[in-house]
């Protein structure tokens, strides 16, 4: 078993990094309408590209971490979908992805994401945005979101996971590397299941029914381990790992907004709606 101080060095070996990260470099393009770019600073001064889609000062805010192989411009058509349902949406890249500087490393991956979250949150606050803040991660980004949720719980209203995973070791085997052979156990990896057990604020998960990279048991495990009293797992029938939005369409975004509205009391609960309906009926009968 490796010493704890050697784990970061071990995880940053080329054999592991080339299987776990698939960075794509892209030039910085012009942001879509009602979007702006912001570079976050991580580590020893490296710049990480972020893009922010805004709709209104008091709308809820999602700070998002994308999946492996994706980059910020991939969300140029998705960001406006969040705007259409009334959500401010910010997305961060990783080292070596998009126009961001550096090389992705496991030893810096989660800390970078925490720093990006902090700086994006500060951007919203400094610019007068007052909406509740949610952190969201897709696939690889679920590790970022869960780590931030635990470390920045006081800054958050809730957590949203798209195609997330509970256990790293089985995922690594699917990707072609046996981390156990290196002497690592689950607690020395991303440890999503162990971390999410500590998070008690509202949590919403979406997962494709036929996801082959991260089978349903990963989502079910993550959901069962979550420490939140208010938690939900929404399965998207017919969707695989990369087709939740394609299959769900606008309903994908509406479902996320419905969860946000519910936990922020933006809409009355069913009891209040029933009272309002009965009051309306009574008023009509008296007319």
Shape descriptor reads: globular
Task: Kindly report the average pLDDT value.
Answer: 91
Largest sheet geometry: 8 strands, mixed
Tell me what the CATH architecture is. 3-Layer(aba) Sandwich
Instruction: Extract low-pLDDT stretches.
Output: 1-5
Count of strand segments? 8
CATH C-level category: Alpha Beta
Total DSSP helices:
11
What's the N-to-C terminus distance?
79 Å
CATH superfamily: Alpha/Beta hydrolase fold, catalytic domain
CATH topology: Rossmann fold
Percent helix = 25-40%
Strand content: 15-25%
Q: How many structural units, i.e. domains?
A: 1
Q: Give the C-alpha Rg.
A: 20 Å
H and E order: HHEEEHEHEHEHHEHEHHH
What's the arrangement of strands in the largest beta sheet? Answer: 1-2-4-3-5-6-7-8
List its traits:
287 residues; Rossmann fold; 38% helix; disordered N terminus; eight-stranded mixed β-sheet
